[in-house]
Amino acid sequence: MPVVFNTVGDLREFLNATRSQGKTIGFVPTMGNLHQGHLDLVNKAAEMSDVVIVSIFVNPMQFGPHEDFDAYPRTLESDCSALANHPCNAVFAPTVREMYPKGVNTEIDVPSLSTILCGHHRPGHFKGVATVVTKLLNIVQPNVAVFGNKDYQQLQVIRTMVADLLIPVTIVGADTTREPSGLAMSSRNAYLSKEERETAAMLYATLKNIGEALRSDSQVSTTLKQEKERLTSAGFVLDYLEIRDAQDLSKSYVEATSAVILVAAKLGQARLIDNLVVELKH
Ligand code: PAF
For 155-168, what is each residue's pLDDT tens digit? Predict the structure, then answer.
């Protein structure tokens, strides 16, 4: 079992001892309820560092007032059991009071990226993510921090914030882990019924169909329209299905070297997101 620290002070003591032995630190921030996707991030962090820290913290600041903060699954014991079979040295599982002892007085925001796409549908979400990730990076001071490419917009927000604030860490994006059906692994898949889980696999098929049209530069807008209709008929309530420049998420992807197709949709109780990056030939 990895050792579990609940306070910033105890974790820092462990990290100081680790650093004084000349060891490098890899960090995987999570909200827990770990699945294979998270464990793959842990493996990736271990490939690049001597010691791996996983944080498990359901961050209230990134949930909207009508979102699933209370319902979000908290499974620390089974998370630690899963981590015991992976190269994780320590878990940081703070309370809300430990992370926000004086509430929220300082916010980190990347407005150019945090008000579009998911940020438009979840106002304040990325401010909450950027603020907690800054705090976690300041606590752990890792050499490398690994995030999933599945949360593509989140990763772009974090990369931009780290570059702008000169935070001395290498940010690594890791490939999305998928179910055999193609469904991207996510803690929120737990909200899907068996039938909905089968339907949810359509999202990745949609991304691949649009990716094909983009690569062959044919019928892109028709394919996009057809795919939106197909998802809606299957019961999805679409927040967006869009093609953007993969670097800055701007709408003008046509001249870009790579594009990203991003989707966010509700299916039953679950809000699902996924994306596919496509290299463009010019
Ligand atoms: O991706 C997540 O699980 C969360 O947004 C993160 C990065 C752990 C911040 O709370």
Answer: 999 999 999 999 99
CA distances from 140 to 5, 92, 109, 170, 172 (A): 12, 9, 21, 13, 16
Which secondary structure element, helix H or strand E, spans residue 208, and what is its range?
helix 202-215
Q: Ligand 1: which atom is nearest the Cα of residue 148? A: 1
Atom of ligand 1 nearest to the CA of 58: 10
- The enclosing domain of 201 has a CATH number of 3.30.1300.10
Domain contains 239: yes
pLDDT level of residue 282 (50, 70, 90 thresholds): confident
Whole-angstrom Cα distance, residue 49 to residue 44?
A: 9
Give the integer Cα–Cα distance in Å for 224 and 230: 10
Mutation pick for ligand 1 pocket among 154, 159, 185 (CB with most ligand atoms within 8 Å): 154
